Amino acid sequence: MNLTQEDWVAQFEADENAVILDVRTEDETNDGIIANAILIDIHKGQGFIDEIEALDKSKNYYVYCRSGMRSAKACEIMNELGFENTYNLLGGIIEWNGDIV
């Protein structure tokens, strides 16, 4: 499910079962990440799949990348792997107005 930043943040903040997932490359994350995000690079191929499958499928995942394209793909992959609640940040971190660490 694609969410605007306002909806993504509001839903995340109200969600006690939430996990933030950053699917950018390590180089990209050096510019900063959203606080408490788990980093799993979608470009790792099977490594990405392996790391995703190790996650708790009962959690709700708030996924982002640089522009929102890779995170949308990550949500699709996660849904195929049995994750029921994945939320893509439209516009990615380049349109992010919140804090980064």
Could you walk me through the main structural features you see in this protein, from its secondary elements to its overall organization?
It is a single chain. The N and C termini lie far apart (25 Å). The protein is 34% helix and 18% strand. 26% of the residues are buried. It contains 4 helices and 5 strands. The protein has helices at residues 5-14, 26-29, 46-53, 69-80; strands at residues 2-3, 18-22, 38-39, 60-64, 86-89. The protein has 101 residues and is an alpha/beta fold.
Please supply descriptive tags for the structure shown above.
about 35% helix, alpha/beta, about 100 residues, globular, five-stranded parallel beta sheet
Structural class label? alpha/beta
Shape: globular
**For the terminal residues, how far apart are their CA atoms?**
25 Å
Q: Cα-atom Rg, whole angstroms?
A: 12 Å
What is this structure, in a nutshell?
With 101 residues, the chain is of the alpha/beta class. It has helices spanning 5-14, 26-29, 46-53, 69-80, and strands at residues 2-3, 18-22, 38-39, 60-64, 86-89. The protein is built from 4 helices and 5 strands.
Topology readout:
Layout: E1 2-3, H1 5-14, E2 18-22, H2 26-29, E3 38-39, H3 46-53, E4 60-64, H4 69-80, E5 86-89
Parallel strand pairs: 1-5, 2-3, 2-4, 4-5
